[in-house]
Predict the structure.
Amino acid sequence: MGTVGLVSLGCAKNRVDAEHLLGGMAARGFQVVGDPAGAEVVIVNTCGFIREAIEESIDEILEASRWKTEGRCRVLVVAGCLAKRYPDIAKDLPEVDLFFTPEDIGRIPEVLAGAGSPAARPAKAPTRILTQPAHTAYLKIAEGCSNRCTYCTIPSIRGEFRSLPEGSLLAEASELADRGTVEINLVAQDVTSYGLDRGDPIALARLLGKLEALRGLRWIRLLYAYPRPFPPGVVEVLAAGGKTLPYLDLPIQHIHPRILRAMGRSIPPEEVERQIGELRERIPGLVLRTTAIVGFPGETDEEFQALVDFVRRTRFHHLGAFAYSREEGTPAAKMRPRVPARVARARLEGLLAVQAEVSASRNQELIGQELDVLVDGSDEGGVLVGRTYGQAPEVDGQTKLSGCPEDRAAPGSFVRARIREAWEYDLGAEVIGS
């Protein structure tokens, strides 16, 4: 059927979509190649969440269009959020042959192969073709979002929150485990809402329990849990010391009450603080990650300082911070006064500097401890690296390993290591066992 190459942009949820797409293409007889520049069919899976992502998507589309004249590309496909957010974009990008919105991505293999091509998946064709090392993978458990934050485009692009069926998730996770995946990271716009749209409040705890029962899986992690009371049973699973790790990504975005109201965030600051305190009390060894937005319309110096003080006081292990991006079509885009870009950048740098101090202090506390480390491979300098349970893939730091026997250095292996060094984001450890 020909060769297909993929350029995938954006978040982990986009990556999961792209990996399913590649699996579908392989099932239709296409040969997936690692370098899209040499493929006959090139698919650019776009992100349209914020302006920077849109610009990156456009740049990648234009780069891919060159391969139609300078490479082997015969068909250029654009998929994902960009086509949904800008329905008329086709007239501005005549180089593109086909556009597909997120809802239509699943149709791409059939359209490209021809409707008359066999629909049955070959016996050994994987559901997903992973675009990262096979020992770690993301599992998307829901589509869309119903939180309606005033700055966010996700509901208009992806629609309301919709939980994916438990059976299909377990089948996908089982297939991944059979192929060597030992770490699964659950992702959605709001993982702790899983099942609530179907009136099933124990759905997430039940899903976690069934995932823990799968042979081969060792680590299960929850990413992006909206800061609201957790559904029944979830905290108990996190605290039980099983395969579900005591790690939570709890995005606060801000802490000043006026800014939270303007953002459309439904959880007041006192409830955020109460929940964090309760989670830390109930879950031994809990590692907390969060995200924050600075420079939101109308944010004063005092309101920004309230966020800085909260971050310093709460001592999150990890924090991702961003300057507010004004997105057309969102309620926040009309809000005034706007914070000048230079002020927002200065605030961002200031908040990240505070978090760097906190992260360094948190890491120093680990010196001398013995922890399991999942080996990821070698970094660009040839140093063997891995991650503790407190380091999620791609967004947190790494653990640099020394003294690791060669037979335990394969990606996906677990080693026991003693933490010897600590920096702002990374750790250094000596392997003491397997």
Remarks:
- The radius of gyration is 22 Å.
- Confidence is low (pLDDT under 50) at residues 115-121.
- Residues 136-364 form a domain with the pyruvate-formate lyase- activating enzyme fold (CATH 3.80.30.20).
